[in-house]
Structure to design on (570 residues):
């Protein structure tokens, strides 16, 4: 179990992490979400003592620096390409083994586990980002730790790699281990994470089960398609439903169930071609809840055909 | 002991360590061979001692310095300091290992280079030498030369840790002894205003360190300079290394990784 308490970090005048407190429980994959610059990586570095700041983090009740052989307790992946380009993948892991009293054979086991067995003797300077991530994951798993802290481990992985990572982390959590994984791949986190911790501008925004976060983030709605749009919208208006017609002529009805919409259409003798329940995704909930906490938001993308600054007039 | 095991694994799995070692050994062998005609012409003790202290305090020392620089420089250049400190979160033992492991390797490499140099030269000239091929003076200059290379390595580690930058470490390691010290020494010697403190040049760390391997009748003394003896010179030299390493350690302990 990870217990982070009052984590605080400032870079000059910029506040990076502002009194963040949370717990990560074993047996679950906990997603660590936040927009760019929200303070996720800084929080991870604070947790393992790489950055100096206020607050404390305990791993099963012990601070990271007090753990005798940390790699056997906590596996950490903070940066994909943190290796010397001309030291072979195997030697990179063996070096880490030497520092933790781990048998060298474990290096080969971990390389095989992450799919890099065939390039164990290759220098990682030619590795793709995905391969570098796999090497970082192998390093994190060297000590067969109870706890994993992974910062953006899915970056650069191909779809098969993402699927493999999801299964691996779920397997780890299923064994009763503690897994904290930060990611921008929200659709993937929706499938992977049982619990989410969300931060924005260094502050904790949410710390709850993923389903609760999605439900909290926005509402459910019903999509209905009909060739008699005017007739159906008239009935919906009569019944006081909140509705809107989408550009593709689908009608979106909020605040009621699909059954209620179907009953209304039936009562008005309106043909219905589609009637489906929809709920917001993790991505939509995330965007809604972190919108104001996005420090580096780009300009809105113009609609096709509209004026683009800098383009020829 | 784990940080030392880690540092040794790091050092020996790095190609540059072995390139530097090979360069040192080849240069030492060449110097051993080049000494043969010189000693044939001048078979005195001074010529023999000088022939033993060309390669190690120059090329081997520089190579050892670079090994020290790379020990810290690579960590910051390639971001490996983070995996290092997540494996070994207590920074002081990590820093101690970063000084002592390359320094021990530098000593072993220097001894190997000196042995090679000595054996090759001895093989061809020992019958012509007017003095014994091995004496207390020979032992002293050889040990001094090895320690000078060790000091270079330690200073390389310290400077790179202070600057947290590999290029800065290399530049400083070359500029300090070759340009800064020589400029100060020349200024102290030639500018009349500095007459009273002229002898201070013996406190220049690299100049002082060279006393460890300087033959007894060295030309430096003939020039009127008053260098320290081998022991005091070595103390000044290693004190400088210790100060630089202490500054580097302070930064290493206090800064974010």
């Amino acid at each position: 179990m990870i217990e982070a308490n009052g984590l605080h970090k400032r870079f000059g005048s910029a506040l990076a992490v502002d009194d963040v407190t949370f717990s990560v429980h074993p047996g679950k994959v906990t997603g660590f979400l936040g927009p760019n610059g929200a303070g996720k990586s800084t929080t991870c570095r604070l947790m393992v003592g790489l950055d100096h700041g206020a607050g404390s983090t305990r791993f099963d009740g012990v601070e990271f620096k007090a753990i005798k052989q940390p790699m056997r307790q906590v596996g950490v992946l903070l940066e994909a390409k943190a290796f010397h380009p001309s030291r072979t993948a195997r030697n990179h892991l063996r070096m880490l083994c030497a520092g933790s009293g781990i048998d060298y054979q474990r290096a080969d086991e971990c390389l095989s586990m992450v799919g890099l067995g065939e390039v164990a003797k290759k220098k990682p300077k030619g590795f793709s980002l995905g391969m570098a991530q796999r090497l970082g994951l192998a390093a994190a798993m060297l000590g067969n730790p109870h706890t994993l802290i992974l910062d953006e481990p899915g970056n650069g992985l191909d779809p098969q790699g993402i699927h493999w990572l999801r299964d691996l982390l779920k397997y780890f959590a299923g064994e009763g281990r503690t897994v904290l994984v930060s990611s921008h791949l929200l659709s993937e986190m929706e499938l992977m994470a049982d619990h989410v911790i969300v931060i924005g501008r260094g502050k904790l925004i949410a710390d709850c089960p993923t389903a609760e976060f999605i439900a909290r983030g926005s509402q459910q709605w019903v999509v209905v398609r009909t060739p008699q749009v005017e007739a159906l919208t008239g009935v919906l208006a009569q019944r006081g439903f909140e509705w809107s017609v989408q550009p593709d002529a689908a009608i979106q009805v909020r605040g009621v169930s699909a059954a209620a919409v179907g009953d209304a259409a039936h009562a008005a003798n309106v043909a219905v071609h589609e009637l489906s329940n929809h709920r917001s995704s993790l991505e939509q909930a995330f965007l809604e809840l972190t919108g104001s906490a996005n420090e580096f938001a780009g300009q809105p993308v113009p609609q096709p055909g509209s004026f683009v600054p800098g383009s020829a007039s | 002991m784990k940080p030392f095991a880690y540092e040794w694994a790091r050092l020996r799995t790095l190609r540059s360590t072995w390139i530097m070692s090979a360069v040192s050994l080849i240069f030492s062998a060449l110097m051993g061979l080049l000494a043969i005609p010189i000693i044939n012409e001048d078979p005195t003790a001074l010529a023999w001692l000088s022939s033993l202290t060309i390669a190690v305090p120059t090329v081997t020392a520089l190579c050892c310095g670079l090994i020290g620089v790379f020990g810290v420089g690579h960590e910051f250049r390639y971001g490996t300091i983070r995996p290092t400190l997540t494996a070994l979160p207590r920074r002081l033992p990590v820093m101690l290992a970063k000084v002592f492991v390359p320094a021990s390797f530098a000593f072993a490499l220097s001894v190997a280079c000196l042995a090679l140099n000595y054996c090759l030269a001895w093989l061809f000239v020992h019958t012509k030498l007017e003095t014994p091929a091995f004496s207390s003076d020979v032992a002293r200059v050889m040990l001094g030369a090895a320690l000078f290379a060790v000091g270079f390595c330690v200073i390389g580690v310290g400077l790179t840790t202070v600057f947290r930058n590999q290029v800065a470490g290399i530049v400083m390691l070359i500029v300090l002894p070759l340009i800064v010290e020589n400029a100060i020494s020349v200024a102290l010697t030639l500018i009349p205003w500095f007459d009273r403190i002229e002898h201070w040049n013996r406190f220049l760390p690299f100049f002082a360190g060279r006393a460890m391997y300087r033959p007894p009748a060295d030309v430096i003394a003939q020039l009127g300079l008053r260098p320290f003896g081998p022991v005091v010179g070595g103390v000044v030299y290693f004190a400088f290394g210790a100060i630089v390493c202490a500054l580097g350690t302070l930064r290493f302990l206090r800064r974010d990784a």
About this structure: Residues 100 and 178 of chain B are 25 Å apart (CA to CA). Chain B has eleven helices and no strands. The mean pLDDT of chain B is 90.
